[in-house]
Please model this.
Amino acid sequence: MRNGDYHPNRFQAQSDAVTTLFQTKVDSNPENTVGFMTMAGKGPEVLVTHTKDLGQILSAIHSSQDKIGGVADIPTAIAVAQLALKHRSNKNLRQRIVVFVASPLQGQGADEKYMVRLAKKLKKNNVAIDFIAFGDGIEEGEHSILKTFVENANSGDNCHYLAVPPGPHLLSDIILNSPILAGDRGIPEEAMGDIASGAAAGGAGGFEFGVDPSLDPELAMALRMSMEEEQARQAAAAQASGAPSSSGAASTPALAAAAAAATSSTSAPPTGAAQAAAGAAAAEDEEDEEAMLQKALAMSQGQDVEMADHQGGQEESEEDEIKRAIEMSMKGNDQQQQ
Amino acid sequence: MAESEVSLLEYLDLSQLTCLNETQDHTFKAIVADKKKNTGSAYLESDADEQLLLTLPFNQTVKIRSIAIQSSNVEQAPRKIRLVTNRPALNFDDLEDGGAVLQEIELSEEDVREGRKVPLRFVKFQSVNSLHVFVVSNQGDEDQTRIDAIDVFGMPLQGTRDVSGLKKVEDD
Model:
């Protein structure tokens, strides 16, 4: 818990995440209440029962700081949490348990059959559960007991599993941008589905333009539109530059193609990012781009075909023009020197 | 027995209505939302296993004389049910040992097919604020239990009055 792989250390990062979680939950609905418990030490212990008071949570976090140690007993802790949830005063509230796991699963917690049974029981009693795994809590390999647990407890997509690898990002930021808190921030959870993986991978940097599209769809739309406009402008510029330079005969198709290739390659990284963030929109973008590229190529080639007939005459006249221009400039220079 | 026996669904407090282990698509609320016996296509179905825990909160104290449960698929219809009253914080764990259970009923296939009234031990259901129906098992040991309609008969207790319909009068 004192490891420094999460900034500033695991416990601090987790405390920060807890307060963020608390604040978001309480702010989202005035009836919401949050409790707080620890899983390790001598045994699972409820430090704060349902409250809306941040001070109580903060003092509990502070007091738990001295009790770091022992082994986290997740199944027992979940059972205790369920009991605490059961005695809530407002029966209209739906129950949810959020578990932070930063140490490897041990004892019954590592017994998949037992955990699945526990998950089914939670589902039956209408208790939603979220797992936030970080540090050593992230299980190695493809198979994850916690993930299986969440899958078994899930009813109506209300349970989530989030693994946060170590890195320079803040644990609380990633939780804030994950489906765990999406519903409390007025964002439809479906919109967060694809983004969650991106967020887990690299925080806000994983988004197209560095902005979470689901948080501010209008901004994302504006950014995307301006990018498309710029692409269109570049394509038009490529066409325009293709037309006049076509007088340069055989070298033109290559030039136009190079210009088109340049536009497509500059816009490639953004579309790549868009694919990660929003698959459907990205596909459309790509189609547009390809169509434009084709058009640019076709146009430049078409113009070439037309030009081919006049090539000889034009070349001569151009050479003449250049000669005349050089002569004139030479004359001008002479005059200036005189 | 001069008192008339009426359906108590009209006294339900729908805002407090809950059901544990129901599926998202087929909820308890759907079959009692009209405050009368459900005749539409909606039904209640269990999710993780065959058990269900229905909570029927009333907006005033009632006496319950009988209960009727109907299911269009007899195999999936409830067989053994346990009744508990006035325990708003009930979950499945409390009912495993059967300590608080007032009455256990074994429903026959005819009962659930036709939605026949099953009489309760009237003396035990004299002052009910909320009725909890724990469905333990179903007729055909199916994985899912299905209930198409439920109705509760009895009478509102004299002296208590339904105040939920009253609206606050605007001050001038």
Summary: Confidence is low (pLDDT under 50) at residues 193-206, 244-286, 305-313 of chain A. Chain A touches chain B at residues 86-87, 91-92, 120-121, 123-126, 155-156 (CB under 8 Å). The longest strand of chain A covers residues 127-134. The CA atoms of residues 112 and 143 of chain A lie 11 Å apart.
